[in-house]
From TrEMBL:
The active site is at H440 (phosphohistidine intermediate). An intermediate of this reaction is the autophosphorylated ppk in which a phosphate is covalently linked to a histidine residue through a N-P bond. GO terms for molecular function: ATP binding; metal ion binding; polyphosphate kinase activity. The gene is ppk1. ATP binds at N41, Y474, R571, H599. SUPFAM superfamilies: Phospholipase D/nuclease (SSF56024), PHP14-like (SSF143724), PPK N-terminal domain-like (SSF140356). This is Polyphosphate kinase. Catalyzes the reversible transfer of the terminal phosphate of ATP to form a long-chain polyphosphate (polyP). One of its GO terms (cellular component) is polyphosphate kinase complex. PANTHER family: POLYPHOSPHATE KINASE. Residues 5-108 form the Polyphosphate kinase N-terminal domain. Its cofactor is Mg(2+). Keywords: ATP-binding, Kinase, Magnesium, Metal-binding, Nucleotide-binding, Phosphoprotein, Transferase.
Length: 693
């Protein structure tokens, strides 16, 4: 079966991110942010995927033989593509963005470009604001091992030649102190950022990397040496926790241990300035134990993720126009949200509409004396979580609060542990997910005593996390409902999380992984195949972050062969190869990268003219289908179903930000077709939605 390897597919996605940095239609400072996103993505890729491949390469030959594909061959292909993208990244930065910044009267200066007056200012700034933050370490015989922190930028200092001239007639004696190698951590956090703004000159604005400020001041730190050469390095460490392979019962202790290991994990990549002297690189390798296979020649500067903090100099025209969160057409701006949800279903579309409706609902539930219980799944929790604070308030007010906390949400474990412990100490019933099964579903259930001693349940089901920070950037769909057909099954999901006993019978409405999601998807695809065999219209539209599962890919290939029309909108990993004669000729694939991160998942099945539309937390990856608790929920309200289909249709029609499988921009067809940018069209369409009772 023809598929694209997962890691190469992901690298294609990151290439789309780089295309946004290259596009002159994107506001200039936003292009710098896409450089930061590309860099951050690649760091994580090395820490997780490349580190995993390197571990696989080191397995015994007999063990490697059990793998479907040679990890050595995969690693070689991945590193070759990374090198190609890194070269394109450097060209984009040097030949496109720096000249564009200059044209916008913003000058990112190196130390060699300073005027005498600017150099004097920078030297004074260094001595007053930077010098005391530096802690150089000498790489000499007294240092047995040098530990470099994960993801921090370090500067090496190569000191050469005593400044004093040798005695007359004696020549230059060999002096081991004449050459020294030192390393210091660039104090980005303690300094307050990576960039230093210099005084403006009229309309001209100037800024420097903190690295270059250190380069200007470094000679003054070592007046006895004639030469002080400064170069940068950055280490990325293995961040794959492999918790699924562990067997300890105390998962919380394991996570703590894994977090500690992450900081000291095996080196996955060390980027270094190719201009670095060989003596310095040799000393680094000797003192850190890093081998040649982890060395990657980078550039003069590392950690381009720091461009998230690049100053805007008040130039709003160089940023995206503001899209303030829109008021919701059916949820009240003040007053009871529970009452509104009790009357009808509502769909929320962050970030176009405010996530504040979710935190408002939690605060209302915490304060409502008729609410008896709140249950929620937490996968990624914001550091200053308003969601968690509302749950703490609910506990304080005597509600029964159940919190299913995912401790293995990569790179968010620390925040999750903090809030889990805080909630547990307050009296909440905190359920930690078992090692072998992540809970990725996004669910909230509120139980309220109503009139005549009855109770009613209110649910929130979403594609996105209960995280106010990411809700400002990630596009998601969320359903507020009191429909008993759904709330009853949501309650059963929480019962499973608590008891770990599989539901006695398949749900009628929710598709629940790891039990019924895969078989139900297979049934839905097979139904479209049967329709196609009968000559009836048959189609499937899928919007996913990732499509990787071999079984479902094979099913989609079979559907294409039967004549089912399949449209894929894939943000990230897409292992299915579309448009292949005799295999996937009825399948098309596009991906969107724009100012917001596409995060929602939507499954549409034609169903003989009575469309079935599901919104889900689950991508079509083996881990989501078989090793996680995931939920796909149907839109039972016809108006809301049409609403999601309209937003999906904007993405299907996008001819501005859409790329095909090969990352080629999709041009308007036929000639003269209107310009459609899906995210902009979504915002404007939601803005025009009139308030409905």
């Amino acid at each position: 079966m023809k598929t694209l390897p997962r890691d190469l597919s992901w690298l294609r996605f990151n290439a789309r991110v780089l295309q946004e940095a290259q596009a002159d239609t994107v506001p200039l400072l936003e292009r710098l942010k896409f450089l930061a996103i590309f860099s951050a993505n690649l760091d994580e890729f090395f820490k997780v995927r490349v580190a995993t491949l390197r571990r696989l390469v080191k397995l015994k030959k007999k063990t490697r033989a059990q793998l479907n594909e040679s990890p050595r061959r995969q690693l070689k292909a991945v590193l070759a593509e990374v090198q190609r993208q890194q070269e394109a990244f450097g060209t984009t930065y040097r030949e496109q963005l720096l000249p564009a910044l200059n044209a916008a009267h913003i000058h990112l200066l190196g130390e060699a470009e300073l005027t005498d007056a600017q150099r004097a200012w920078v030297l004074e700034y260094f001595n007053n604001s930077v010098r005391d933050l530096l802690s150089p370490v000498v790489l000499d015989g007294t240092l047995h091992h040098l530990f470099l922190k994960d993801q921090a930028v370090y500067l090496t200092l190569f000191l050469t030649g005593p400044r004093a001239a040798p005695a007359k007639g004696k020549g230059r004696a060999k002096d081991h102190a004449a050459e020294r190698v030192l390393v210091l951590e660039l104090p980005t956090k303690r300094h307050g950022g990576r960039f230093v703004q210099l005084p403006a000159d009229g309309d001209e604005r100037y800024v420097m990397f903190l690295d270059d400020v250190v380069r200007v001041g470094a000679p003054g730190l070592f007046p006895a040496y004639a030469g002080v050469a400064v170069h940068a390095v950055k280490l990325s460490r293995d961040a794959e926790l492999d918790i699924e392979e562990e067997v300890s019962d105390d998962l919380l202790a394991k996570i703590r241990s894994s977090l500690a290991k992450r900081a000291t994990g095996y080196p996955a990549r060390m980027l270094y300035d190719p201009a670095m002297p060989r003596e310095v690189l040799r000393a680094l390798k000797q003192k850190t134990g890093i081998g040649d296979e982890e060395l990657v020649a980078g550039s003069r500067y590392h950690n381009f993720r720091d461009f998230f903090g690049f100053p805007s100099f008040g130039q709003a025209g160089l940023l995206n126009p503001a899209w303030p969160p829109l008021p919701h057409p059916t949820l009240p701006r003040t007053g009871s949200l529970l009452a509104a949800i009790g009357r009808r279903d509502h769909l929320l579309h962050p970030p176009y509409q405010s996530f504040d409706y979710v935190t408002r609902l939690l605060r209302e539930a915490a304060a409502d004396p008729q609410v008896s219980a709140v249950a929620i799944t937490l996968y990624r929790v914001a550091a200053k979580s308003a969601v968690a604070k509302a749950l703490l308030k609910a506990v304080k007010n005597g509600k029964q609060v159940t919190v299913v906390v995912e401790l293995k949400a990569r790179f968010d474990e620390e925040s999750n542990i903090y809030w889990a412990e805080k909630l547990q100490k307050a009296g909440a019933h905190v359920i930690f997910t078992p090692p072998e099964q992540k809970v990725h579903a996004k669910l909230l259930l509120i139980t309220r005593r109503e009139a005549a001693e009855t109770t009613r349940q209110y649910a929130y089901l979403s594609t996105g996390n209960f995280n106010e920070d990411t809700a400002e950037l990630y596009t998601d769909h969320s359903l507020f409902t009191a429909d008993e057909r759904l709330t009853r099954e949501v309650a059963a999901v929480f019962n499973y999380c608590h008891d770990r006993v599989a539901p006695a019978a398949p749900f009628e409405h929710l598709l629940l992984a790891p039990f019924a999601l895969r078989p139900r998807l297979n049934e839905l695809i097979d139904h479209e195949i049967k329709l196609a065999h009968k000559g009836a219209p048959a189609y499937i539209i899928l919007k996913l972050n990732a499509l990787q599962d071999p079984g479902l890919i094979a099913r989609l290939y079979a559907a294409s062969k039967a004549g089912v029309r399949i449209e894929l909108i894939i943000r990230g990993i897409g292992c299915l190869v579309p448009g292949e004669a005799g295999l996937s000729e009825h399948i098309s694939q596009r991906g969107l990268v724009d100012r917001n991160l596409e995060h929602s998942r939507v499954y549409v099945f034609g169903n003989g003219g009575e469309e079935k539309v599901f919104v889900s937390s689950a991508d079509w990856m083996t881990r989501n289908l078989d090793r996680r608790v995931e939920v796909a929920f149907p839109l039972l309200d016809e108006t809301l179903r049409a609403e999601v289909r309209q937003l999906l249709d904007f993405q299907r029609a996008d001819n501005v930000k859409a790329r095909d499988f090969d990352n080629q921009f999709i041009l308007p067809t036929p000639a003269g077709a209107p310009r459609v940018r899906a995210q902009e069209a979504t915002y404007q369409w939601l803005k025009k939605l009139k308030r409905r009772p």
